[in-house]
Design goal:
mainly beta; globular; 199 residues; eleven-stranded mixed β-sheet; 11 strands
């Protein structure tokens, strides 16, 4: 568990999921057998190493069905927040991570298990955070990572593929990130609309 003193320079990450389909449509994810998230070894927001403002379209494909969402990602000074917003602009879930504690709330009383928030946050960390900051997360899973500018691949202790992350000029408009989670059969696609970073 991260110490509180490590949070002094924690960054703020806001991921806003604007659901393009009605909320019941996301219920197709409920039958998915969810792996255990290495939550207690997640990196701190500050370990991202830079500030970021990005807008993307996120697609979730499971058992042949795809659901798309608009995604706004902001990194600044304090914490990581994942906010899901309905198609009519109403926040339906607010997920906060300060580097030590996870807090999940639904202003509308939505079943927070309808969307795999922890799994989405796992993949955000694996895709964006620097490899050294993922050491504890990988150790808890007993995983290893190989990384290039175009791809990150995660393997278990038996060298079986667990997650593949493929980058295609994702910091440019129309660039993309494609994520395959072999444990669940879930495919995640991120297409960039805007990507702005500052130190």
């Amino acid at each position: 568990m991260r110490k509180c003193k490590q949070l002094k320079h924690a960054g703020l990450v806001v991921v806003t999921l604007v659901l393009s389909l009605s909320l019941p449509g996301c219920a197709l994810l409920r039958p998915m057998v969810m792996p255990t998230s290495p939550q207690d070894s997640w990196p701190t927001p500050s370990e991202l190493g830079y500030s970021l403002q990005a807008q993307q379209v996120l697609g979730l494909t499971y058992q042949g069905q795809t659901h798309k969402m608009s995604v706004a990602l902001e990194v600044s000074a304090q914490k990581m927040t994942l906010v899901a917003i309905s198609a009519v602009g109403v926040p339906i879930a607010i997920i906060n991570w300060d580097g030590e504690h996870l807090d999940k709330q639904s202003p509308t009383g939505m079943d927070l298990n309808a969307i795999p928030f922890e799994l989405i946050m796992d993949t955000i960390f694996y895709a964006y955070w620097p490899q050294p900051s993922l050491a504890d997360m990988l150790k808890q899973q007993q995983w290893t990572m190989t990384a290039t500018a175009q791809q990150r691949s995660l393997y278990n202790h038996q060298q079986q593929s667990q997650i593949d992350i493929r980058f295609n000029q994702y910091q440019r408009p129309n660039g993309s990130i494609a994520i395959t989670d072999y444990r669940t059969g879930l495919d995640i696609a991120l297409t960039t609309i805007q990507w702005i970073t500052t130190k």
